[in-house]
Amino acid sequence: MYIDKVGLGCASMLGRYGRSDSTRILEHAYGKGIRHYDVARSYGYGEAEALIGKVLFKKEGVLISTKFGVLPSRRAKYFSFAKPIVRPFIKKNVPGSLEVKYQNSNIIDRNLLLNSLDKSLKELRLDSLHRLYIHEPAANWVLSHDLFDALESIKQSGKIEQWGVSGYLDSVNEIAKNETNGRVGLYQTNLNVLSYSQFREFMVNPIESVFSPFHRGYVIQVLEAFRKNKNFVRRFDAKNNVGFLSRSSAFWAISLLVAVTRYRIILATDKIISLDENLTAVDYGLSIEADDALYAIELMWEHSHA
How far apart are CA 13 and CA 243, in angstroms? Predict the structure, then answer.
């Protein structure tokens, strides 16, 4: 079971990948022991929650987190009819071009919260959520007393276990710095363990989930630079019994992150083979001593900035 360490990110479901592929991924992930699934009202053009609710309905031990504050574009319902037709062509010829287009809500308030939560619970076929995140607020966003009271009231009612803020690192970092009174106790962000200065800075903040360990592809640059350090590679291999040079950049991004953080990692993957490879990296990361992993990260950082 990967309850404490790994969750499955569902952002691409019913977006870049269709219903059958998305269903296979969900079922395979559950069979592999993943019990935490991360979704949002906006994912899959507003349809991902319903798929997850159908596939995982009444499965034992499932924990689902969702988000509110970002809405599917108004064109989503019209485009949804064309997705099955255009998806094969786009995936083959224009990688990455079939992306979910979002419409950010200008007002993240109590009404949006209540409406979104009701829809999410209905689509997911749940009475309560593991976590509910405010989705991608701007860096200058301020949590109002009214919204805070509403979130706390919903938490007390048992409809959510925890709530927090989800967004990109720069924005989340600013929000965390401004929330000095500790009202927000849960953050989800795209922390890249190999962006060492950012990783070190954020370790002191109350993050409970981490996603996108490959943020902006930077991990590949750092790892390729690190591979040149033959002396460390030999020492690391001898102590940890693994062929460093034979492993991919993705493998090391995940395994080192698992080794050094106590927080849950959300793995966004679209293929079963990729999910299996990622879980192999997670298993290896659990076997690495944290001090060794941190030392590796420090060396990678130094060599990439030499």
Answer: 34
36: its two tokens: 């935490």
If asked whether residues 153 and 234 sit together in one domain, one would say no
CA atoms of 219 and 167, how far apart (whole Å):
19
* C-beta of residue 296 within 8 angstroms of C-beta of residue 256: yes
Query: What does the block give as tokens for 77?
Result: 């319902």
Residues 132 and 254 occupy one common structural domain = no
Higher pLDDT, 193 or 268: 268
Burial of residue 99 (CB within 10 Å: 0-12, 13-18, 19+) is exposed
Confidence of residue 48 (pLDDT cuts 50, 70, 90): very high
Give yes or no: residues 63 and 156 share one domain.
yes
The answer to whether residue 48 is domain-embedded is yes
Q: Is the pLDDT of residue 20 over 80?
A: yes
The Cα 107–Cα 218 span in angstroms is: 33
Q: Is the same domain home to 58 and 150?
A: yes
Q: Specify if 92 maps to a domain.
A: yes
For position 216, what pLDDT does the model report? 46
Neighbour tally for 267: CB within 10 Å:
23
Structural domain that includes position 135: 1-168
CA distance 209 to 38: 10
What residue type is assigned to position 159 of the chain?
A: K
d(CA 224, CA 226): 5
Tens-place pLDDT, residues 120-176: 999 999 999 999 999 999 888 989 999 999 999 999 999 999 999 998 877 888 888
267 in the same domain as 148: no
Closest by Cα among 77, 85, 89 to 45: 77
